[in-house]
Design a protein that fits this description.
By secondary structure, the chain is of the alpha+beta class. The chain contains 3 helices and 6 strands; from the N terminus they run E-E-H-H-E-E-E-E-H. The chain has a single domain, classed as Nuclear Transport Factor 2, Chain: A. Helix content is 24%, strand content 33%. The strands form 2 sheets. It has a 4-stranded antiparallel β-sheet with strand order 3-4-5-6, with helices on both faces. Strands 1-2 form a two-stranded antiparallel ribbon.
């Protein structure tokens, strides 16, 4: 028997019918998403991967802020309808991102851990992103201050 990581898994809808989803298909979709959208800078292709407005907005926002963003996948795991990918990213901030409204034109290099949940058609329905945003903001020139003191603006 194959490990669930490398085989189809079964789950049941509330009505009891079995639904088949492919963990390998979902892993391949994530790798395709990173290659076409992140590394290929194809924002229009993003809609092939999700119709969730929050997923679309976060992807578009990141790529508009860092239009030269590049990602290198380090590892991918999948189970059931979930895929987690750990990848290093680098790019130059050239547009608004989080609360950094003005482009700093500074490079950023960090790692992302992205968890994605897929529907039965292979579309992303939800996402969770983990990163060291403090590190990223510091690379953009935003200082951090002790509690109770104002943070220094970028220099």
């Amino acid at each position: 028997m194959l490990s669930p990581l490398f085989s189809d898994t079964r789950r049941r809808l509330p009505f009891g019918q079995p639904v088949r989803m492919s963990t390998e298909r979902n892993k391949a979709r994530v790798l395709d998403l990173i290659e076409r959208v992140t590394n290929g800078h194809d924002l229009e292709a993003l809609e092939e991967f999700s119709s969730n407005p929050a997923v679309l907005a976060s992807g578009r926002g990141l790529l508009r802020a860092f239009p030269d963003l590049r990602a290198e996948v380090k590892w991918v795991v999948a189970e059931g309808d979930m895929v987690v990918v750990f990848h290093s990213v680098r790019g130059t901030q050239q547009g608004p991102w989080l609360f950094v409204e003005q482009p700093t034109e500074r490079p950023v290099e960090t790692s992302f851990m992205l968890a994605l949940r897929f529907d039965d058609d292979g579309k992303i329905v939800d996402q969770w992103l983990g990163s060291n945003f403090v590190e990223m903001l510091a690379q953009l020139g935003w200082g951090f201050a002790p509690v109770g003191q104002p943070a220094a603006p970028p220099r």
